[in-house]
Amino acid sequence: MCGRSALNWEKFGIKRTLKEGMGGEVIGPLGFCVREILLPHRVCPQSLSDKNSGNYTWGVLVKYGVDTLTAVGELSSAVRAPVSYAGLKDAISVSSQYAAVRAELKDRIMGRKWAFIPKGKVWAPLNHDHLWGNLFNVQVMNYRRLSSLDIFLGGTPFPNFFGPQRFGLRPPYTHELGLQILRGEEPDELREMKPSLRSKVRELAVQALQSYLFNLILRDRIDRDIGLKVLEKGDLVAPLNVFGLPAYSEISVSEGGRLKPNQALLLPVPGAGVKGPGLDVAARTLNDLGVKLPHWVRGWYREALMTPLSPAYSATKKALYLKFELHKAQYASVLLHELIGGSSEIPRVQDASYPLGT
Questions:
Q1: Which of 82, 214, 262, 274 could be stapled to 268 by a disulfide with Cβ–Cβ 3.0 to 4.6 Å?
Q2: Where are the chain's structural domains?
Q3: pTM, whole model, 2 decimals?
């Protein structure tokens, strides 16, 4: 068993809003299970196609205690073909997600901590646009109270911070690598990587820095004691589409008031091409850090709030079992940090075996 390692959430700009926590701990990977959901609402491993034809073999990528990029890279090397996927899943978890391989595969492919199980054929690769969200089953051990459950079950929104998985669980943190890259430096961690992976990690490192800036913008809003459903004049909002996701092509500027049930409050992730409140917070931070975001770093918009969907729970004296869904780009670790409290890793790691062959 790995020892408990304190995690400084403040370093990532993350702030809890609940005064009291349930206590306890999530021990992964076995206590943190993730199942991917693709549009319109296909919970892995539901079928992607009724026709069973195409140039790509789609299947379920089951992984245990390893990140998606590593598992996908090893699978691609094993079958000598490109592999596409919709979303990244937590490394400290047992997760199942969809993947599409540009090859004809019939047999299960096994890695040390992952397995790919072919299910059928499709005509196109997967990407982030296919993703709806994720279904989580979480085991909270040694909880002390159930005081936060009413909030969890009642449809209460929580701040939609980028979680620790975006930045890494130990130094050097990914957004710090992004800072080095923008300063023209080449971090030692990148020099040791293969060129193909190095390029992807460089991109992720700069995006992690942008994510950190978003967290500071959201935190500033909380520090100014603005209610999570209160709109200020100049806030950006978007209607929700039929899948409950923001329609980013229909962003409008609010005159203030209350957030409507069919609206999403959006904040900018700093970079080229975005506007909106909070960019002054990002600009001051970048000035203090001595860097600027170059024009090739594109920004985007992100929901300021997240709400656990279809929440459910059961409890014994020692363990609390939570089940819920979150939209894509929303972090279960942030939600659990709100509910549980404390500063330890969520989840923390415990070595164990998992029967991938079953």
A1: 274
A2: 9-148+308-349, 157-306
A3: 0.91
